[in-house]
Amino acid sequence: xxxxxxxxxxxxxxxxxxxxxxxxxxxxxxxxxxxxxxxxxxxxxxxxxxxxxxxxxxxxxxxxxxxxxxxxxxxxxxxxxxxxxxxxxxxxxxxxxxxxxxxxxxxxxxxxxxxxxxxxxxxxxxxxxxxxxxxxxxxxxxxxxxxxxxxxxxxxxxxxxxxxxxxxxxxxxxxxxxxxxxxxxxxxxxxxxxxxxxxxxxxxxxxxxxxxxxxxxxxxxxxxxxxxxxxxxxxxxxxxxxxxxxxxxxxxxxxxxxxxxxxxxxxxxxxxxxxxxxxxxxxxxxxxxxxxxxxxxxxxxxxxxxxxxxxxxxxxxxxxxxxxxxxxxxxxxxxxxxxxxxxxxxxxxxxxxxxxxxxxxxxxxxxxxxxxxxxxxxxxxxxxxxxxx
Amino acid sequence: xxxxxxxxxxxxxxxxxxxxxxxxxxxxxxxxxxxxxxxxxxxxxxxxxxxxxxxxxxxxxxxxxxxxxxxxxxxxxxxxxxxxxxxxxxxxxxxxxxxxxxxxxxxxxxxxxxxxxxxxxx
Lengths: 389, 122
Prior knowledge:
The complex is a heterodimer of chains A (389) and B (122). Chain A has 389 residues and is of the alpha/beta class. Chain A folds into two domains: 9-224, P-loop containing nucleotide triphosphate hydrolases (Rossmann fold); 231-386, 3-Layer(aba) Sandwich (Rossmann fold), CATH 3.40.50.300. In chain A, 32% of the residues lie in helices and 29% in strands. Chain A is built from twelve helices and 16 strands. Chain A has helices at 9-12, 34-46, 60-69, 107-120, 131-138, 140-157, 172-181, 244-251, 291-297, 316-325, 348-355, 374-386, and strands spanning 22-27, 51-55, 81-85, 99-100, 125-128, 160-166, 185-194, 197-207, 216-222, 226-237, 254-260, 263-274, 277-283, 303-309, 333-338, 363-365. Chain A has a 16-stranded mixed beta sheet that branches. In chain A, helix 5 packs across helix 6 (140-157). The two termini of chain A are 20 Å apart. In chain B, helix 1 runs antiparallel to helix 3 (103-120). Chain B has helices at 2-16, 44-64, 103-120, and strands spanning 21-28, 33-38, 72-77, 80-87, 91-98. Chain B has a five-stranded antiparallel beta sheet with strand order 2-1-5-4-3, sandwiched between helices. The longest helix of chain B is centred in the middle third of the chain and has 21 residues, at 44-64. With 122 residues, chain B is an alpha+beta fold. In chain B, strand 3 and strand 4 form a beta hairpin. The A-B interface holds A 29-30, 191-193, 195-198, 232-233, 256, 258, 266-267, 269, 271, 280, 282, 292-293, 296-300 and B 1-2, 4-5, 28-32, 34-35, 43, 45-46, 49-50, 52-54, 56-57, 59-60, 90-91, 121.
């Protein structure tokens, strides 16, 4: 198995791409699809594999600069990274790379270099920076014939082939072949503009080794950092003095609060970068007089932390009511049982019972002031939001 | 989507070109950043969230005392101004300007842009 390095995608694929298989990142124009191939290159180098990167849409040195922008140091692995330069000859510039496609507008030239590499190298990950540019230069039919051949050869020699492909207006026949037939797996990458969330997503269109998953994941591209799964809004709510702000601050890479005398009067806002996820956290005030603001700010949430003070069951009714105010019913939520270190803190089962919670709602113990349990709670909620298995 | 965002970018760039304007930001009513035109953008998400809160709080306050909806929120601070206007039911526009800026001109342009943004996001 070769991991793609894209968060969550490897999990969906049952661990990664098996040796001998091919995968295409099938991206709509205008989304940052080419980063996927690059992230796979870096990830396979980092995990000790050999990697071939076929650069056909820009000068290799620019591509190397891009890797740096994402904070991926590929120089460290230069003895295991083989760059195929299929661009410089096109503009008549000399190439510094060992492997050069001398006529990038002739598919036979590609064939020679690629097939030689496939035969020479031990099982590697071979990534095509842009299949679409090869297609533009060499013709659709010719390129498809070659890709078929490369995939077969890779299967024989146990390589993994990964292609970036941008869905320009090619013939229906070509697009059909790419989507349905040529590759073992197709990852579709596109954009959405749903209400006010403008984002990019990816999802598995097909895969002949992993079981089908229909989930699509929102992502954004960070520099440095690369592809991170993006959760635009997670709400943190709960009764007065339950520890919501402390929770937001404990969880966040950076956070701000609007408070007076230790009580949140407008909101807390925090940003979390954790295990490939990038999420923004909105914390609401707890007191009833702020309810109108809570209503305004809770739209578009993807999940909810309901923070309660484990020593104060009297407030549990209010906590339930707050789920109602934030219109959070139906959204994935977890109950965060805070202040577990205090004398008289209820056990998780007692809280579950007093709340009369459905079985599928997790209760997570935390001591937010000491950052105990907060990331565990985050992982539990993320798992619920992303519908992991 | 690319087209919509391009339009939002154009609108924000136009606002940014007004004298004294340091940043122009589009956010959703519930505090999510849509797009921004700003030099250093580290606290953009927070600024979007806080601005939505301020406008939301102002709307709640004025409607409860039967004074109708606020036209805008202007915050005068030590080194400049923060101006927030609603742009239709989904979005709002935020402007950061320095103290030397001409408030009148900014407000006229901002109101125009807010109407445009409302149309763009329809």
